[in-house]
Structure formats: C-alpha cells, structure tokens
Amino acid sequence: MKIKNKQLIFPFVALLFSFVLVACGGTGQSEGSGDKLEDIKVAGELTIGTSPDYPPLEFYVLDENGDRQIAGSDIALAQAIADEIGVDLNIRATDFNGVIANVQSSSVDMGISGFTFTEQRADVMDFSEGYLQESTLGYQGLMMQKDMAEKFDSLEEIEEADLIFGAQGGSIQFELAANLTEEANIKQYGTLDVGLAALNEGDIDGMVVATSSAEPMLKSFPNLMILPQADFDLDPERLYSTNVIAFPKGEEYQSLIELANKVITENKENGKLEEWHTDAVNLSKDAIEE
Fold first, then answer.
1. Do residues 248 and 197 share a domain?
2. Does 85 lie in the same domain as 186?
3. Is 66 a residue whose pLDDT tops 70?
4. Same domain as 128, residue 28
5. Reported confidence tier of residue 59, pLDDT bands at 50, 70, 90
6. Strands 242-248 and 224-226
7. What angle do CA 87, 91, 96 make, to 5 degrees?
8. How far apart are CA 124 and CA 120, in angstroms?
9. pLDDT at residue 186 above 80?
10. Bridge partner residues of 40 (DSSP)
11. Domain boundary among 232, 264, 279
12. What is the rounded distance in angstroms from the CA atom of residue 169 to the CA atom of residue 171?
C-alpha cells in the first residue's frame, strides 16, 4: 500500500503539524504529583498511544515535504484535549497490541485508537465517555476475496465451512472472529493493512473488520469485498459500537478523564466530532491508493 499526499485542504489537517511524533521512551514525567493532569501541565505535553492503520480514525499521510504524519478524527480529538490542557500533543505510534501495553504500563497518558469498552479491558484500564458510534458509520463485518464471498449466503454457512480468519491482535475483531471458528483457526495481525494484504494473497479466507475503517482500503485491494450487513453483521446487538479513550488505571488519572469527557461533550454538541470524522473520511479516501 502506498500513501500519497493530496492538497491538504481540510481545516483539521493543520493538526498534523501541531504534535511531535515520539517512537520510544516514557511520557517525560518522573516522580508524579498524584494528579496526572497536573503532571501533564508541568511536562508541557500530552502523550497518546495510537495504531495509525485504522482510517478514518488514525492513519498516515504525507505532508507537503513528503514526510509521514498521522491524521484522523481520533487525532483531531486528541489535539482538542491537548489544546484544552494547553500543552503539545505527542504521539507514540505502535500496533494495537502495543497501544494496549502502553496504556496498561502507564507509558502513555491515554490511548486513542478506535477502542471500544469491554468488561475484560475495564479490569486493566479506565475509559472516557463514548464519542463515536460504529453503528452510525458501518458495522462489525467480514471481508473476503470476491470469488470466496460468492459461496456464502449466511453466517451459519461460514461457521460450518471451517475457514481461516484474520483479525487485528488484541482487537474486538479478534473476539468476534472467535465466535465464527476455533481460536486455532484465527491468525492475528499487527495492523489492519497487513491482514488485508494476507487476505488478498489467499493466506486467510476472511478478515474480521470494522467496515468504516476497512472500506477506504478497498481502493488498494480491488479483489476484496465487504460482505453485506443484512446477512453478515457480526455485532447486531451493537455491543461493540461505541468508541472510547483508554486510560491507565489509577485515581491520579481521574481529573484527566473528567477533562477528556468535557472535551468530548463540548465537541459532540458543537458538531466538531462529526466534522472531524467527515474530513478524515474524505482525506483517507484521497490518501490511500494502490
């Protein structure tokens, strides 16, 4: 997959130049005050973890100098939180499992990477209020090669076919894949694009995806298709439909969570969350090509 630069005309893309990418190291904070929000203010930076392979929430583009930058509606929200605090935004990019590990170890101040709430995750991390619903944008579904997809008319037929599925490691999609087959028949991939490349090559029979993030990649994989929602919705009860921000466990994070919830509420009410998402969808379609 190649990322190309279009004229970055969307207002929210100015956010690309307002943060510093960090590849390793801690959050820059030594002994804390017992209040993470105060520590962030002293440090002058908010460090977030994200997996930039999940358009339109987080993904790479090239800036006007040909350098890789991270864009997306999640990044716009993270920037709004940093702006509310009055600090710079630092981004630590890893695969999704790395984001989870960094949140659990408090190596980042928060993780924003298409997270959804589960009871299992709530045992090891805290969450913000919900800010984006997959059910209004797409659904939890399946991608297959077109000739393979034509063989099936229902999920029941897929479950009986003993197929090999792919899913992003540590994701809700991995849990949903386990409803279709035995865990031994599921291959984990660090990033969505790597999984789709494996599907395109025939290494797996299907990939479990959030369709709103997978759809922009169809340009790069014209041999693949998303199976229709009417017959292949893996989360019809919408248990995994709302995105949240993840925070390390601890009382010291409560003031930061409260501030994040305030920013989420304000930007829901003023329409910015919807605007950021629309801009990110358009940018991701322009940015990804074969």
1. no
2. no
3. yes
4. yes
5. very high
6. unpaired
7. 140
8. 8
9. yes
10. none
11. 232
12. 5
Task: Name the token pair of 1.
Answer: 């997959």
List strand residue ranges (DSSP E) for 19-87, in order.
Answer: 19-22, 45-50, 53-54, 58-62, 68-71
160-178 per-position pLDDT tens digit: 999 999 999 989 999 999 9
What CATH number did the domain enclosing 53 receive? 3.40.190.10
Q: Is the CB of residue 245 less than 8 Å from the CB of residue 128?
A: yes
Same domain, yes or no, for 127 and 247?
A: yes
Core vs surface per residue 226-248: b (16+ CB within 10 A) or e: bbeeeebbbbeeeebbbbbbbbb
Tell me: do 215 and 249 sit in the same domain. Answer: no
pLDDT of residue 287: 67
Same domain assignment for residues 19 and 117: yes
Q: How confident is the model at residue 23 (pLDDT cuts 50, 70, 90)?
A: very low
State which amino acid sits at residue 180: L
Better pLDDT: 204 or 286 = 204
Cα separation, 283 vs 272, whole angstroms: 16
Domain that holds residue 45: 2-134+240-289
For the chain, state the CA radius of gyration.
19
Per the structure, the count of domains in the chain is 2
Instruction: Provide the total of helices (H) and of strands (E) in the chain, helices listed first.
Output: 13, 17
18-22, 24-28, 141-145, 215-219 — most confident range: 141-145
Model confidence at 10: pLDDT above 60: no
